[in-house]
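Note to self: keep these together.
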Amino acid sequence: MNINTYEIDFTGGGSFDASDDLTDVYVKYGGTNSSIKGTVTDADNTWSLSHSLAMNETITVEVYGTIGSSIGTGTMRVDLTVTGVTAIASDVSVIGVN
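Structure:
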């Protein structure tokens, strides 16, 4: 699998709003850090990259960012969509995780 895009959507509860409360967000995948986004939106935050996964290989994907000091109380859910192309054929695969 040749992974080419990670997309992150944030769902806030209470006083949390990703576009107001998060800065310097990046994705860490298999020990590699993506570029840093100084600001994010609540949905459709994408990182284009090139990463290959062998058959049956797994990697850990983590999302990091700075949380603003005025957040108060609230909750946040992060949804990750991974898009890639199989290495053998031209099939596109989309995997959603939340």
